[in-house]
Amino acid sequence: MSAPSLTPSTTDAPRRTLPRRAGPPPSRDRFTRSLRRNLTAHAFLIGALVCFAVFSWYPMVREFGLAFQKTESGHTRWVGLDNLTTVVNDPAFWQAWRNTALFTVLALVFGFAVPFVAALVINEFRHGQAYLRLLVYLPVMLPPVASVLLFKYLYDPGYGLLNEVLRFLHLPEQQWLQDADLSMLSVVIAATWMNMGGAALIYLAALQNIPGELYEAAELDGAGLFRKIWYVTIPQTRLILSLMLLMQIIATMQVFVEPFLLTGGAGPEGSTTTVVYLIYQYAFNFNNYGAAAALGLLLLVLLAGFSAAYARLSRADDE
C-alpha cells in the first residue's frame, strides 16, 4: 500500500476571494460604449457642420451685413438702404430681372419637359436601359467648360454645325449668339442639354415605382398613350414633379455659368445679362461689394418666397 500524501488537497484548502474593483456606474458605461460606437458618425457630422458653417452659413450672415455697409478707403460704415437704392436705380437692374425671368420661363419649357419626356421614352425600353441612362447622364459628367466649348462650335456663324445644316437645307443662316433675339434661346438650349441628365434619372426612378396594374386598368378602360400619361403617370409622380419644378426655378434664377461662358455674360445689347451676372459685375468689376450683397439679398428673399409658397401649397394638398 502506498503511503498517504502529506500535501493537503486543494479541495480541502479554504477558498480565498479577491475583492472586486468598483466599476463605473452602469449609465456611464453605456454612454461610453455608445460614444465609442458612434465616434465615426459624430466625426463625419462635425466635419459636415464645420463645412456648412464656413462655406454656407457664414457667407450668408456676412452678406446680410455687407448689404447695409459700404467700404471706402479701408473704412467700413453703415449706410442703411443706400446700397439697395443704388442697385434699383441702375438701368441694368430691371433688364437683368427681365432676362432672368425669360431664361426661367424658357428653361421650364425645355428643361422641365425634355427630361420628363426622355424618362418616359427610356422607361418603355425593356432592354438596354443602363446604356440609355448613361447616355442621358453623360453631359452632366462633362466639365461645364467642355460643354460650352462644344456649343460655341455648334453656334459659330462661320463653320458651326448648325449653320452647316441650315446651308444644306437652303435655309438662311443665323447669328445664334450674336443676335439679341436668339442669344437667350441659344443659352437655354445649351443649359438644357448640360443639366437634363440628373432630372431625367430622378423622373425615371419615379416612373419605375408606379404599379403596372394602374396602366393595365387604364388599357382595359380604353385609354391611349396620352390618356395614360395624363391620368396615371402625372398623378402618380405629382410630388416629384412639383419638387423638381421648385428646384428648377431656384436653379434657373441663379444662372451664371452658361451665359458667362457663351456670350461673355452681358451678350448682345445686354440680352443675356442675368441677376447673378450683375452681382458679379458689382463685386469684381465695380468693387462695390455692398451693392452686390444688396442685390444678392433681394434674390435670396425672392427664392425664399418661392420656397415658402411651395411649402404652403404642399401642406394644403396634404390636408
Structural notes for this entry:
The protein is mostly helical and 319 residues long. It has 14 helices and 2 strands, in the order ααββαααααααααααα. The protein has helices at 26-37, 39-66, 82-88, 91-124, 129-141, 144-155, 161-168, 183-207, 212-220, 225-236, 238-253, 257-263, 275-285, 289-318, and strands spanning 69-72, 75-78. The chain has a two-stranded antiparallel sheet with strand order 1-2. Helix 2 crosses helix 14 (289-318), helix 9 (212-220) packs antiparallel against helix 10 and helix 11 (238-253) packs antiparallel against helix 14. The radius of gyration is 32 Å and the shape is globular. The N and C termini lie far apart (99 Å).
Q: For the CA atoms, what is the radius of gyration? A: 32 Å
- Poorly predicted residue ranges: 5-11
Distance between the termini: 99 Å
- How many helices? The count is 14
Structural class: mainly alpha
SSE pattern, N- to C-terminal: HHEEHHHHHHHHHHHH
**What is the average per-residue confidence, as pLDDT, rounded to a whole number?**
83
Total strand count, please?
Answer: 2
* Silhouette: globular
Taken as a percent bin, the fraction of beta residues is: under 5%
Residue share in helix: over 70%
Strand order of the largest sheet: 1-2
What characterizes the major β-sheet?
A: 2 strands, antiparallel
